[in-house]
Automatic annotation (TrEMBL):
<dbReference type="InterPro" id="IPR017871">
    <property type="entry name" value="ABC_transporter-like_CS"/>
</dbReference>
<feature type="domain" description="ABC transporter">
    <location>
        <begin position="8"/>
        <end position="241"/>
    </location>
</feature>
<keyword id="KW-0067">ATP-binding</keyword>
<dbReference type="InterPro" id="IPR003439">
    <property type="entry name" value="ABC_transporter-like_ATP-bd"/>
</dbReference>
<protein>
    <submittedName>
        <fullName>ABC transporter ATP-binding protein</fullName>
    </submittedName>
</protein>
<keyword id="KW-0029">Amino-acid transport</keyword>
<keyword id="KW-0547">Nucleotide-binding</keyword>
<dbReference type="GO" id="GO:0015807">
    <property type="term" value="P:L-amino acid transport"/>
</dbReference>
<dbReference type="GO" id="GO:0016887">
    <property type="term" value="F:ATP hydrolysis activity"/>
</dbReference>
<dbReference type="InterPro" id="IPR052156">
    <property type="entry name" value="BCAA_Transport_ATP-bd_LivF"/>
</dbReference>
<dbReference type="GO" id="GO:0015658">
    <property type="term" value="F:branched-chain amino acid transmembrane transporter activity"/>
</dbReference>
<keyword id="KW-0813">Transport</keyword>
<dbReference type="InterPro" id="IPR003593">
    <property type="entry name" value="AAA+_ATPase"/>
</dbReference>
<dbReference type="GO" id="GO:0005524">
    <property type="term" value="F:ATP binding"/>
</dbReference>
<dbReference type="Pfam" id="PF00005">
    <property type="entry name" value="ABC_tran"/>
</dbReference>
<dbReference type="InterPro" id="IPR027417">
    <property type="entry name" value="P-loop_NTPase"/>
</dbReference>
<comment type="similarity">
    <text>Belongs to the ABC transporter superfamily.</text>
</comment>
């Protein structure tokens, strides 16, 4: 039994798009500072799984709790306030808003914040991400793909989430930027968050993951340890096209 109460528990989760039954009974548990890789071929439901946890897709059955608090059926807003950060595949940089305004929106989920804390937190982000600092007054959507990914992750980071859902962070990015993005994943983990990471770049994802699950047709068909060679081999067999 885990002694630390900070824990994600997903059990018997199902979700649909209309009549299409996409997530078909997923169980996942994770503790703080655990990075869980979610792998699978295209269209098996990885993105839908993250969206269901984030409340973007309503679960039709099952339970999701974080530190014992029930998230199932809550709106995306309330789930966000409960400490769940979501970095979606398309990054969702708000059009018409500057880098700084995008970061300020990330802070809206922090309870009891003051404008002084807010300023300090954003300055902390600029110290960590110089490029965002240099571009603070630029529209977020004018940043490069890598910078937008950085902004999307920084926007989640300012909210000090307990659980972070990250969908395909390396998609379309050059290897050097990918390394930077994965360094941010490690930082989020080191700050105590649980991370669920959907990623096509299996090699990079396994370098940060502790454990992983393979999804097929909305179900977990294999679970393994990132450090186990036999588990890695089985993973590669399962996701080979
Ligand atoms: N908004 C939607 N409405 C209806 N069906 C959808 C919607 N979004 C996705 N689907 C379908 O749900 C299934 C699972 O899609 P999902 O995007 O979750 O898979 P994925 O494993 O993340 O795939 P990929 O790696 O290609 O992103 C697919 O068959 C997809 O066509």
């Amino acid at each position: 039994m885990r002694k630390d109460p900070a824990m994600l528990a997903i059990s018997g989760l199902h979700s649909h798009y209309g009549r299409s039954h996409i997530i078909q009974g997923v169980d996942i548990t994770a503790g703080p500072r655990e990075v869980i890789g979610i792998f699978g071929r295209n269209g098996v439901g990885k993105t839908t799984l993250l969206k269901t946890i984030a409340g973007w897709v309503r679960p039709s059955e099952g339970a999701i709790t974080l530190d014992g608090e029930t998230l199932t059926g809550l709106t995306p807003d309330r789930i966000c306030h409960a400490g769940v950060g979501f970095v979606p595949e398309d990054r969702r940089i708000f059009p018409g808003l500057t880098v700084e305004e995008n970061l300020s929106l990330g802070l809206l989920q922090v309870k009891g914040r003051s404008s002084r804390d807010e300023k300090r937190t954003i300055e902390g982000i600029y110290d960590r991400f110089h490029r965002l600092g240099e571009r603070r007054h630029q529209l977020g959507t004018t940043l490069s793909g890598g910078e937008q990914q950085m902004l999307a992750m920084a926007r989640v980071m300012v909210g000090k989430p307990r659980l972070v859902l990250i969908d395909e962070p390396s998609e379309g990015l050059a290897p050097m930027i990918v390394a930077e993005i994965f360094a941010i994943v490690r930082e989020l983990r080191d700050q105590g968050a649980i991370i669920l990471l959907v990623e096509q770049n299996v090699h990079e994802a396994l370098s940060v993951a502790d454990r992983f699950h393979v999804i097929e047709r909305g179900q977990v068909v294999f679970s393994g340890e990132a450090e186990s060679q036999p588990d890695r081999e089985q993973l590669l067999r399962l996701i080979a096209v």
